[in-house]
Design a protein that fits this description.
- This protein is an alpha/beta fold.
- The chain folds into 2 domains: 2-128 and 252-275, Response regulator (Rossmann fold); 130-249 and 282-349, 3-Layer(aba) Sandwich (Rossmann fold), CATH 3.40.50.2300.
- 41% of the residues lie in helices and 20% in strands.
- The chain contains 11 helices and 15 strands.
- The strands form 3 sheets. Strands 12-10-9-8-6-7-15 form a 7-stranded mixed beta sheet, with helices on both faces. It has a 6-stranded parallel beta sheet with strand order 2-1-3-4-5-11, sandwiched between helices.
- The longest helix has 20 residues, at 2-21.
Length: 355
Amino acid sequence: MKIKSLFAAAAMLLASATQAEAPLKVGFVYVGPVGDAGWTYGHDAGRQAIEAKLGDKVETTYVESVAEGADAARVIRNLAKKGNKLIFTTSFGYMNPTQKVARQFKNVKFEHASGYKHAKNVGTYMARAYQGRYLAGMVAGKMTKSDTLGYVASFPIPEVVRGINAFTKGAKEVNPNVKVKVIWISSWYDPAKEREAAETLILQGADVLTQHTDSAAVIQTAQAKGKYAIGYHTDMSEYGKKAHLTSTIHNWAPLYVAKAEQVLAGNWTSQDLWYGLKEGVTDLAPYNDEVPADVRELVEAKKAQLKAGEIRVFDGPVKGQDGAVKVKAGDTMSDADLKGFSWYVEGVDGKLPKS
C-alpha cells in the first residue's frame, strides 16, 4: 500500500508540474488578412510581441478574415474549445459573438477591441486613435492647396465618426477654409472599393486623402495620381514614398503583453481600457520630407500637450456641422460622449448616413 501511495503521489506531482509548465494558449480573431498592411497587420504584430516577450510561456494562434456576425461565434468558440485561455477578438462586429461565447466558457478570458459590452470574463480595449487623427489633420490642413481633403470611411459607427471629426478639427485649426469630403464604402477591407473611393475624392477636388479602412489602396491611388495621403493603423510609407505624409499608427504590443502577463500571474480582471499617445499605443509615423519643418514643430508641440494632458482634442468650443455650438468654451467632451459620437463637426462636407 505504501508503494502504491508513493507512486500515486509521484504521479500527482508529475501531473502538477506538467500542468504548471504548460504554456498559456492565446487566440486571436482577425477581421482581415494579416497582410492587409493596416488594422489586422498591426494586431498581428502585437501577437508576435507576446511570443517575443514571453517565449515558451505562451503559445499563440490566430484565425484571419473572419466575417463579423454569426460565423464569428463559431470561430471564437472553436478557439475556446481548443484550450485557449485568453482570446482577443479584434473588430467591433465581434462584440455580441464574444459575449455569447464568453457565457459558455467562463474559465476563459476574452478581450474585445472597440466594443462597449463587458462581463466578468470579458474586457474591452481601444486606442485613442482620434488623438493621432487630430494631429494628422493638422498636417493635411497645412499641406492642402485646394482646401479640400478626402476621407475614405468604412462604417458610420462612433469610432469612425470620431476619427473623421478629430481629423477635421485638426485641419480647421490650422486652415479655417478647409473642408473634408467623406465617402463610405461599407467595408473594413476592400482594396477595390477603397481605390474607387479615393479616385472619386480626387475628382471632387481633394488633394490630401486619408482613410479608416485597412488596405494601402488609398496611399497607392494618391501616389499614382500625384496627390498626398495620410495612412492609418501602420506606417504605410512604403506604398507611396512621395504621397505618404505620415500615418496615424497603433502599437498594440504593450497592451497585449500586459494582458497575457496578467493571465499568467492570475490577476487578470475585466477592464475598459482606452490607451493613447501617453501610453504609446497611438502615435504618428515619421513625416515625409515634404512636410515643412515649421509644420512638424507645430504638430509635435500639440502632441506634447496632448500627452501631458494639458489639452484634449475635443475641448470647446466645438461646433456641429450646422455651425451650432455643441461644446462650449471651457468644457470638453467626456469619454462617454466620445464613444457615442453620432454627428459631424463643422467642416465635414456631406450627410452622415445612419449606421
